[in-house]
């Protein structure tokens, strides 16, 4: 699997409807689900959480949890769905996640993490990877991080998605943990230098895709989160920039057509969710506010689609 460009897992963002939109904008991008707790998969209707239908891009299922048996069971269930990889979340810093003893707090207990991953690897038909931080609170981001990575690699974990910040579990909320702890890309480069055999993908603070391609070429890929959700139209350039591909080159007009064909196949609740994910497609254009009002309105889909395409055409004409 080519992890050159990945879209990060984001709660209430990277559901299957946003992933469908991303797949229209870029054929090569690796997609991630939201983090799904193993218990939700095991004790509820798996289809509700694992449905990845209509998604042609390689997709990684990210799970959360700290019970080896529950994670093993969830992995077995996930084998029946069209995911290319299963990822254990070891980076989420939220207080709710901490209270459940999963996410970033697990980086403090390497033996428990190894037990969890060992059970997942035993039964998974796909590769099992992890998403980590550089450390947690006052942990040692040099010897401590190296030890953590080495221990996981010894049980068969070969792919690490690394958020290039520590997580401060006391005093900062998740949003602050994405911005306040300083980025340390050099530490990620050192991981790759010391563990050449492993796949190291960097995450955190990446906004300019062209610059990132050059800046992180020594790594195995980059992972972009908010920059992709807040400005999804930038994904139209990903295949060209990172993969030198113009195959199936899409325009925003064709994306709108295909999105509304998809929307027409959904129930009302999912239709609302999908339109919400489209709000940022028009950010920065003239009449962007009108496009948002249209997507939030109760107008007929045919009318919304026509008006949105008119906004795009007017913007193109002005640019010309």
Annotated CATH topology of the largest domain? TIM Barrel
Query: Unreliable stretches, pLDDT < 50, 5 or more residues?
Result: none
Order of helical and strand elements: EHEEHHEHEHHEHEHHEHEHHHHHH
Cα-based radius of gyration, to the nearest Å:
20 Å
Structural class: alpha/beta
Number of strands: 9
Roughly what percent helix? 40-55%
Write the layout of secondary structure elements.
Elements: E1 5-7, H1 16-25, E2 31-32, E3 36-37, H2 38-43, H3 46-50, E4 59-64, H4 68-78, E5 85-90, H5 95-99, H6 110-123, E6 127-136, H7 143-154, E7 159-167, H8 174-177, H9 185-194, E8 199-203, H10 209-215, E9 221-224, H11 226-230, H12 238-243, H13 252-263, H14 268-277, H15 288-295, H16 301-319
Parallel strand pairs: 1-9, 2-4, 3-4, 4-5, 5-6, 6-7, 7-8, 8-9
């Amino acid at each position: 699997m080519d992890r050159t460009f990945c879209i990060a897992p984001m709660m209430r963002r990277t559901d299957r409807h946003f992933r469908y939109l991303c797949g229209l904008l870029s054929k090569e991008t690796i997609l991630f689900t939201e983090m799904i707790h193993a218990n939700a998969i095991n004790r509820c209707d798996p289809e509700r959480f694992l449905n990845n239908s209509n998604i042609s891009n390689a997709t990684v299922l990210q799970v959360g949890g700290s019970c080896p048996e529950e994670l093993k069971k969830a992995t077995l269930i996930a084998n029946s769905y069209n995911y290319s990889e299963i990822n254990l979340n070891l980076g989420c810093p939220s207080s709710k996640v901490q209270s459940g003893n999963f996410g970033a707090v697990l980086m403090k207990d390497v033996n428990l993490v190894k037990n969890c991953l060992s059970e997942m690897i035993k039964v998974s038909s796909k590769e099992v990877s992890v998403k980590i931080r550089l450390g947690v609170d006052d942990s040692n981001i040099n010897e401590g991080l190296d030890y953590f990575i080495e221990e996981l690699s010894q049980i068969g974990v070969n792919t690490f998605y690394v958020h290039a910040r520590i997580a401060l579990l006391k005093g900062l909320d998740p949003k602050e943990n994405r911005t306040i702890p300083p980025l340390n890309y050099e530490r990620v480069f050192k991981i790759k230098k010391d563990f050449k055999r492993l796949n190291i993908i960097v995450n955190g603070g990446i906004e300019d895709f062209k610059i990132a391609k050059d800046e992180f070429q020594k790594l195995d890929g980059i992972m972009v989160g908010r920059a992709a959700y807040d400005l999804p139209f930038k994904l139209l350039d990903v295949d060209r920039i990172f993969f030198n591909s113009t195959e199936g080159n899409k325009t925003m007009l064709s994306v709108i057509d295909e999105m509304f064909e998809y929307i027409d196949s959904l129930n009302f609740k999912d239709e609302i969710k999908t339109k919400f994910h489209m709000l940022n497609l028009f950010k920065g254009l003239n009449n962007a506010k009108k496009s948002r009002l249209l997507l939030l309105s109760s107008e007929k889909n045919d009318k919304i689609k026509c008006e949105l395409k008119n906004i795009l055409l007017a913007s193109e004409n002005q640019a010309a």
